[in-house]
Amino acid sequence: QVQLVESGGGLVQAGGSLRLSCAASGIIFTINVMGWYRQAPGNERELVATITSDGSTNYAGSVKGRFTISRDNAKKMVYLEMNSLKPEDTAVYYCNADLRRVVADKLNRYWGQGTQVTVSS
Predict the structure, then answer these.
(1) Under a CB-based contact definition with an 8 Å cutoff, are residues 90 and 118 in contact?
(2) Residue 23 pairs with which residues in a beta bridge?
């Protein structure tokens, strides 16, 4: 069984910062891309940022320059440093990982349960 568990969400004032963490556990052979998505009430889930196993990153335009994604391959963790937060960043943030459980497995995507981020104006 593979689990992704997020932490670090909370309530912050506009202009503030938060750091989200996500830990992957279970039987995992290799993790390819890891990422963060978010979903605000009434909206579809949207990409925030992704990072490959060799550190290449991709960001949504709305967060570029304010958010930084990073990962620790040895610890099977991914992080999202969020600065200059805005009320429109309010959402449930989900991490995901494309991984193989065993060497012969195909890549499968796993999701965490989400963590709430609320930015007050």
Answers:
(1) yes
(2) 5, 77
4 vs 76: CA distance, rounded Å: 10
pLDDT per position as a tens digit, 74-86: 999 999 999 999 9
- Nearest residue to 71 via CA among 90, 55, 48: 55
Cα–Cα distance for residue pair 110/67, rounded to 1 Å: 22
How far apart CA 14 and CA 100 sit, in angstroms, is: 39
Q: 3-state SS of the chain? A: CCEEEEECCEEEECCCCEEEEEEEECCCCEEEEEEEEEECCCCCCEEEEEECCCCCEEECCCCCCCEEEEEECCCCEEEEEECCCCHHHCEEEEEEEEEECCCCCCCEEEECCCEEEEEEC
Render pLDDT for 35-63 as a digit per residue (tens, 0 to 9).
999 999 999 999 999 999 999 999 999 99
Beta carbons of 80 and 67 less than 8 angstroms apart: yes
CA 104 to chain centre: 26
